[in-house]
Amino acid sequence: MSCTLFINACLASLSDTERRLAEYVLANPQSVMHMNAKQFAQACGSSPAAVVRFSKRLGFQGFTALKLDLARESALPAPDAFQSAIRESDDLSTIIQKAESIHQRNIALTYRMVNADVLSGAVGALGEGRSVRLYGVGASGLLAMDFLYKGSRVGMPVFYHADAHTNLATASLLGPQDVAIAISYSGRTRETVLAAQAARDHGAKVIAITQANRNALSRLADFPLYVPSEESELRVGAMTSRVSGQLILDLLYLGYARCHPERAEECLLSTRELIRGLQGK
């Protein structure tokens, strides 16, 4: 996961001490890379214990891991300023270039935000789940439908109802053996948050795909998987959030298929043959 990207996303939800540490990291990343926990704490008027807690809050095992991520980030090229919002004066050639830049940046940021340990836990829950229920409306509902299709083809016991109220009702029927995947870029979509809350209350594991800003949905999740908070700068609908969500769901899909390789291959072959029969081939 990306340290500075995560800090920027959740800055508003940090405590006063955490915010002081976070703002120092953002303003002095090169200096922080060469400090130990005691030196960093002194520079921020804090304590080494607070530095360790702050590092773990960001998903790192400790301050050393945070510094290693800062060093890795420093070796990456700076974001292209050309990814600014689409303007009415842009011709189609300019739009093509901007769309390419926007997608390339968003894909890179999404992968940098993936916490491998959280993803591994989510995949494990999917592999052991009695059933997998998807929750999302609007653009998030389209992502849920795509995952439903792909998951069904590898034998995953996955379910989704396009009608939000019908889908919400299923959350009250879940239990400790079930898994809920809740998708909401804002993390505040009422139907999705209510479903995640009901699933959690009934003991189901909750996987959330949302922004990293401690929103209502992320706080309910056992396995929060974050997407970049880039959408507000653009006037192009759910373009970046849709792509980010798709990438995260694809990782869950591939992880599940890896857990059940023989079953996944058998199911793919079986469904392919049936579809070919419908096509007359």
Automatic annotation (TrEMBL):
A molecular-function term among this protein's GO annotations = DNA-binding transcription factor activity
Please verify whether the record's keywords include Disulfide bond.
no
Q: Where is the HTH rpiR-type domain?
A: 1-77
**Which keywords label this protein?**
DNA-binding, Transcription, Transcription regulation
Question: What CDD domains is this protein classified in?
Answer: SIS_RpiR
What Gene3D superfamilies does this protein map onto?
Glucose-6-phosphate isomerase like protein, domain 1, Winged helix-like DNA-binding domain superfamily/Winged helix DNA-binding domain
Which SUPFAM superfamilies would you find in this protein's record? Homeodomain-like, SIS domain
Domain of life where this protein originates: Bacteria
Short name of any one Pfam family annotated for the protein: SIS
Q: Which residues form the SIS domain?
A: 122-262
Can the keyword Transcription be found in this entry's annotation? yes
Give the GO biological process terms: carbohydrate derivative metabolic process
InterPro entries in the record: Homeodomain-like_sf (IPR009057), HTH_RpiR (IPR000281), RpiR-like (IPR047640), RpiR-like_SIS (IPR035472), SIS_dom (IPR001347), SIS_dom_sf (IPR046348), WH-like_DNA-bd_sf (IPR036388)
Classification via PANTHER family: GLUCOKINASE (PTHR30514), HTH-TYPE TRANSCRIPTIONAL REGULATOR HEXR-RELATED (PTHR30514:SF1)
What name does this protein carry? Answer: MurR/RpiR family transcriptional regulator
- Organism of derivation: Candidatus Avichristensenella intestinipullorum
